[in-house]
Amino acid sequence: QVQLVESGGGLVQAGGSLRLSCTVSGRTFDVYKMGWFRQAPGKDRDFVATITRDGDGTDYADSVKGRFTISKDSAKSTVYLQMNSLKPEDTAIYYCAAFSYGAANYHSWGQGTQVTVSS
């Protein structure tokens, strides 16, 4: 079992920046990749970004490419999402998730952190 705790959300004006953190604990040795997702009110949960265990592989949703950066600090067991040039449409609850070797999909989720971008 993997436990995930997000932090760093808040209220920011359009054009501003936030950095989200996701601290990972538990059965981490077989985690293949970590992802960030978001869910706006009344909408489905959408993929935002992902990073592989070794940090070499990253991928982003088209809507955040060039503005968001996913990274990891293995020594701190933490995954980050640096969000720049924020827009009101980025407002959502942001979740991190773990994908382990042999799994069919992301299987462990954090509780989420609220990001609100005002215009």
Shape: globular
Give, in order, the helices and strands: EEEEEEEEEEE
* Helix count, DSSP H or I runs of 4 or more residues: 0
Rg: 14 Å
End-to-end Cα distance, whole Å, is 40 Å
Number of strands: 11
Question: What percent strand?
Answer: over 45%
| Helix-and-strand structural type | mainly beta
Which regions are unreliable across 5 or more consecutive residues at pLDDT < 50?
none
Portion in helices: under 10%
Structure characterization notes:
With 119 residues, the chain is mostly beta strands. It is globular, with a radius of gyration of 14 Å. It is 0% helix and 57% strand. The N and C termini lie far apart (40 Å). The chain has no helices and eleven strands.
Short description:
The chain has 119 residues and is mainly β.
Task: Give the secondary structure arrangement, pairings included.
Layout (H helix, E strand, L loop, with lengths): L1 E6 L2 E4 L4 E9 L4 E9 L5 E8 L5 E3 L7 E6 L4 E6 L8 E9 L7 E2 L3 E6 L1
Parallel strand pairs: 2-11
Antiparallel strand pairs: 1-3, 3-8, 4-5, 4-9, 5-6, 7-8, 9-10, 9-11
Comma- or semicolon-separated keywords:
single chain; 119 residues; mainly beta; seven-stranded mixed beta sheet; four-stranded antiparallel beta sheet; 11 strands; globular
